Amino acid sequence: MHLFDRVFRLVLPIGAMAVLGTVLTVGWFTQPDRYVRGYAPPQPIPFSHQLHAGSLKISCQYCHSGVTKSRAAGVPSLELCMGCHKVTRTDRPAIQRMTQIYNSGDTLAWKRVHTLPDHVFFDHRPHVNGGIACQTCHGEVQTMTVLTRVMSLRMSNCLACHRDPHAALPKDSKITRAAEYCAACHR
Ligand code: HEC
Ligand code: HEC
Ligand code: HEC
Ligand code: HEC
Ligand code: HEC
User: Fold this and answer.
1) Cα separations (Å) of 161 from 56, 71, 108, 136?
2) Which residues contact 100 (CB under 8 A, 6 or more apart)?
3) If we measure between CA atoms, which residue out of 46, 79, 80 comes closest to residue 62?
4) Does residue 149 register a pLDDT over 90?
5) Probe ligand 2: pick from 39, 45, 49, 144, max atoms within 8 Å of CB?
6) For position 68, what pLDDT does the model report?
7) Tens digit of pLDDT for each residue in 4-17?
8) Ligand 5 pocket, 184 CB below 6 A?
9) What is the dihedral angle through the alpha carbons of 57, 48, 115, 155, rounded to the nearest 10 degrees?
10) CA 89 from centroid of its chain's CA atoms
11) By alpha-carbon position, which residue is closest to atom 20 of ligand 5?
């Protein structure tokens, strides 16, 4: 009796806590990157949005021309970078490395910062054409030296805006709600 008492009062709760702690810790550290806000994988060339989109004021769509034409925004080809960097800052190691890759016919393997699971359908067009600014979802990209994910890619985040999008839309927008039926995003 006495022994059982001690087991129940002490050993079991401590054991249970340890198991729970382990599960939570493992879960936290192994959750897919797409759920981690602040995710900023190292890129093959230290490309700065702060420099190009901020200081130089190159428009987002100059490089991400897909946003109004296709589902994906697209990341620019090395060709586009070299349009400027055949002559611009050719003395810098990063540009020289880029030129080498370009001349060898290789492409740059940019790491994805935002990814949704395969069962989710996202399309930039209705959002961008509806007048939602890139910054509403992606944050103040033009101030980022290293592109960092600030948006939640959870379903609840999509739905929260779809239910009440007016703050994200231009004042004269005719859109009042966006799709909430499952097949809009799961097709
Ligand atoms: C419209 C012209 C233009 C395009 C397109 C462009 N850049 Fe640049 N980039 C510049 C200029 C100008 C600077 C230098 C700014 C400064 O130093 O003040 C620069 C600086 C850089 C630097 C910093 C070099 C250093 O070490 O100081 C890197 C790296 C770079 N660009 C990479 C890229 C990549 C990668 C692309 C394509 C995705 C690209 N650039 C597209 C104009 C451009
Ligand atoms: C000179 C070209 C250039 C301009 C201008 C530019 N970008 Fe980019 N963008 C890139 C490149 C190259 C990458 C991939 C490397 C990286 O993530 O830093 C990228 C990555 C991104 C990503 C992350 C993509 C992913 O993997 O999930 C977002 C979001 C983004 N840009 C938004 C913007 C926005 C918003 C603007 C305007 C404020 C902008 N970009 C302007 C070249 C550009
Ligand atoms: C309504 C929110 C929202 C808006 C507005 C938005 N994006 Fe995105 N963006 C996303 C999501 C979500 C993803 C991830 C998509 C995926 O994994 O299929 C993404 C992915 C990207 C990527 C990764 C590469 C790709 O081909 O999709 C780039 C680059 C990007 N966005 C740039 C932009 C730019 C530039 C703008 C403004 C013109 C913009 N986005 C506006 C939500 C948004
Ligand atoms: C900041 C607000 C906002 C966020 C965040 C947002 N959306 Fe939207 N979305 C809209 C608006 C507004 C529309 C409707 C545009 C229209 O009616 O023309 C829309 C339309 C869509 C459509 C087209 C629906 C149709 O009827 O064909 C899809 C698909 C979609 N969103 C998916 C997503 C997914 C997936 C996410 C999350 C990763 C997301 N959206 C996050 C505002 C948002
Ligand atoms: C506006 C877009 C949108 C709509 C509408 C939507 N979903 Fe989702 N759903 C997502 C996104 C984004 C994810 C992936 C992120 C996540 O798991 O939170 C997701 C994930 C899921 C998952 C997987 C959850 C997991 O943990 O892996 C299920 C199940 C699901 N949705 C069911 C539904 C059902 C049922 C409906 C209709 C009542 C619905 N969704 C409507 C965007 C949407």
Assistant:
1) 32, 19, 34, 11
2) none
3) 80
4) yes
5) 49
6) 92
7) 677 667 777 777 88
8) yes
9) -60
10) 29
11) 155
Name the residue at shortest CA distance from atom 42 of ligand 1: 84
Single-letter residue type at 177: R
Q: Cα–Cα distance between 141 and 143 in angstroms, integer?
A: 5
- Token pair, residue 153, equals 């890619």
Tell me, in angstroms, the distance from the centre of ligand 4 to residue 79's CA.
32
Query: Backbone dihedral region of 74: left (phi > 0), alpha (psi from -120 to 50 degrees) or beta?
Result: left
Mean pLDDT in residue range 108-115? 93
The residue with tokens 């070299």 is 82
Q: Extract the tokens encoding 23.
A: 């599960």
Q: How many CB atoms lie within 10 A of CB 130?
A: 15
Mean of all residue pLDDT scores within the chain: 90
d(CA 146, CA 183): 35
Location of structure tokens 């961008």: 128
How would you class 119 by CB atoms within 10 Å of its CB: exposed for 0-12, middle for 13-18, buried for 19 or more?
exposed
**pLDDT for the residue 65:** 94
